[in-house]
Amino acid sequence: MSDAPGTQDSPAGSTGTASSGPRPEPLRFFGTSWVHRDHGYAARRVGVAAGSLAAAVAACLVLSLAYEGLEIADTGPFVAVLIVAMFAICSALAFRNTWQGFGKRPDPDRQASLRGLLAIGFVGALLAYFVRSLTEAPGERLHRAEYDSAREQYARRSARRAGNPAKKKRRR
To answer: How crowded is residue 76: how many other Cβ atoms within 10 Å of its Cβ?
Structure first.
């Protein structure tokens, strides 16, 4: 443990002491409640679903106000179509990218190159978060697979360790 209360020296998902085994990695808004689906897991899922849907609706209202501003400015139909197409395409790409991120670890370099595009399509990311939270905590399946794999590997490693190897009798 470090000096600060509630903090650990080793990162999440790593093995602490030899007898503790791997620890689950916390998820945003869920912590480690996804492991046993306890400590208000269902209420958190409902809250995340409602919050992401409310944020998406609010974002759409803000975008509609921006579109009305373009109409008031009389920029012409080309600019209006271009803006609507840009937000629709970026939202679709953000949805797909966010959805794929729930199933596998995203490439950091690719994420960095898509940062601007994903920022424009934030409505798609919010909708992906909403849809995934209807069935599970977003990212739970990926984290559960990694955690179960780490637990299996730890069990195999610790099962092989039977006593002190220095005291082992040698065959002649």
So the answer is: 10
H-run or E-run covering 106: none
Most confidently modeled range among 23-37, 50-64, 108-122, 138-152: 50-64
Residue type, 122: F
Specify the 3-state DSSP secondary structure of 145.
helix
Residue (of 135, 113, 109, 111) closest to 125 by Cα position? 111
Residue 31's SS3 state is strand
Task: Write out the two tokens for 106.
Answer: 């995203």
Contacts (Cβ under 8 Å, ≥6 apart) of 24? 12, 13, 32, 34, 35, 143, 147
Tokens describing residue 36: 């046993």
Does residue 17 surpass a pLDDT of 60?
no
**Residue 86 near residue 120 (C-beta atoms within 8 A):** yes
pLDDT digits (tens, 9 = 90+) for 37-49: 888 888 999 999 9
Contact 137, 41 (CB under 8 A): yes
* CA separation for the pair 20, 139 (Å, rounded): 24
